[in-house]
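Good morning C.,

I know you're traveling, so I'll keep this short. The sequence:
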Amino acid sequence: MRTPKPSGRNPKSASELKRKKPSREEKKRVLIVCEGKKSEPNYFTDICQDLKISAEVTIVPGSESGTHPKSIVKYAKEKRRGFDSVWCVYDKDVHENIHEAHKQAEDNGFKIAFSNPCFELWILLHYEDQRAEIDRHACQRQAREYIPEYEKGMKGVFNIIKKHQNDALKRAPNLRDENNKNDKKETDNPSTTVDKLIVYLNSISSAKPRR
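The tokens, ready to paste straight into the viewer:
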């Protein structure tokens, strides 16, 4: 009985016989639920376009999610399915029981971009340090010193201030550190964690880093 001649080709291993996985990875899905009806949604829409975000980002305005921090967290809980990362964006402003919204968000694994007293503090930090306690009206007035045409909810704010973004990314964590040194909470007035969301969006950007 003849022995079959070898074919000259190595037999495929079991792992090679398995179906090959698609070469392209599925896009991440990110949910950003905002308290603001215009200001924050406009800002984050512009930054995602500027950064050419590689993920699929859904930005929800307060007109859909509600304008109280707890309602924002509730909305995020209802819509979280299918998202890889969920962010709740809200201010202290005049809201009570902020700590309850924080806890509910953290218990559900959501990230928080919080400002005290308001989102305009993040805008202001692009231009100057703000260490003293400040109310929302003063925050908006000081923002107008740098952006005379500024109005709450206006479009194009990101493109006006983006060249100062690195300054704001340094000032925000320094402000939280200062609060800690003075035996205050990180979230006490003035403070913001919007920088954490900006850092995250930069991390999933497909745009070339700015020099």
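Safe travels,
E.
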